[in-house]
Amino acid sequence: MSFVTFSRSTFHHVSSSARFFSTSLRAQREYANVLVSRPSPGVALITLNRPKALNALNAVHFQDISEAMKEADEDVSVGAIILTGSERAFAAGADIKEMKDKSCEYLSLVIEYFRIKFPEVAEAYTTNFLADWEVITQLKKPVIAAVSGYALGGGLELALQADILLAAPSAQLGQPEVNLGVIPGGGGTQRLARLVGKSRAMELVLTGRIIGADEAERWGIVRVVREGSVVDEAVKVASDIASKGRIAVGAGKEAVNAAFEMSLAEGLRFERRLFHALFSTKDQKEGMAAFSEKRRAEWTHS
C-alpha cells in the first residue's frame, strides 16, 4: 500500500510508514492544562483547561497544547481536530500576571524552555521568539477552532491558525496588546490583514478594540453558531471531514492555504498539479466508482 505525498515541488509515492500518517497507535496521554477526548469516530477534541485564568496562555500551557495537537495529528485514527476552551473563554490571551514583572531574563528562560536560542536584549528584535507558536499551521489534518467567550491577544492568534473558525454568539475577539505597550507577536497583524483587509486590521491592532461574534462574522473571521452548542457544531463538521478520504482532504487543505502564499497564477498551477496527482490514488478510483454505482465510498486513504 502506498500514499501520495503532496508538496509544491514534487509528487511521488511513499510507503505507508512515511509522511501522511503514523503507522502506530499510541496510548492517549494526559496533560495538566488541556483535556483530550474523542467525541466522535475520527475526531479529536482538545479543550484548553486553565479555567481560573480564563485559559490564559503561558509557556507550560502552550507546550501542552502543542504536544496534544501533534499527538492527534500523528494518530492514524484521527481525521480532524477540534480546539476549544470554556464557555467563558476560549483563551483570554497571554498570562499577563506571569509576564508583567518579568524581564528579558524571563524571556530567556521561556526561549530555553522551547530550545530556541535567545540573544542579548540589544538583539531581541531579531530573535526567533514565538516561532513554535505556529504549531497548528504545521499540522497535516484539518483543525477547527470552536470559540466561546473571550478570544483575545494570543487567544485570537491561536484561533486564527485554525482551518475553520466557529464561534458562539458570546464570542469576543480582539488584539488588545497595544494597551500593554506591545503589539501582537503570534501572527495577529498578518492573519488579520489577510482576512479582513488593511483598514479593519489596523483598527483592531491600533485601538485594541474588541468585537463581538456578529461583527466578526460580517468581517469574515468566523461563522457564528446561533442554535445549539458551538462545540457540537464543530464535532458535526469535523465528523463530516473525517468521513472523507484523507489524502483528498489533505490536498484540499494544502491548496487553500497556498492561496495565501502564492500569486493567482502560481496557485492555479499548484491546484491543478494536486488535482492531477490525486488520480494516482486508490481513493480517486473508489470515489468515482462509488458515485457511478450509487453507493457509499469505502476509503482506504491510499
Automatic annotation (TrEMBL):
Highest taxon above the source species: Eukaryota
Gene3D superfamilies (UniProt xref): 2-enoyl-CoA Hydratase, Chain A, domain 1, Lyase 2-enoyl-coa Hydratase, Chain A, domain 2
InterPro entries tied to this protein: ClpP/crotonase-like_dom_sf, Enoyl-CoA_hyd/isom_CS, Enoyl-CoA_hydra/iso, Enoyl-CoA_hydra_C
Example GO biological process: fatty acid beta-oxidation
Keyword Lyase attributed: yes
GO molecular function per UniProt: hydro-lyase activity
PROSITE patterns reported for this sequence: ENOYL_COA_HYDRATASE
Any one cellular-component term (Gene Ontology): mitochondrion
UniProt keywords, alphabetically: Lyase
Record-stated family: Belongs to the enoyl-CoA hydratase/isomerase family.
Entry protein name: Enoyl-CoA hydratase, mitochondrial
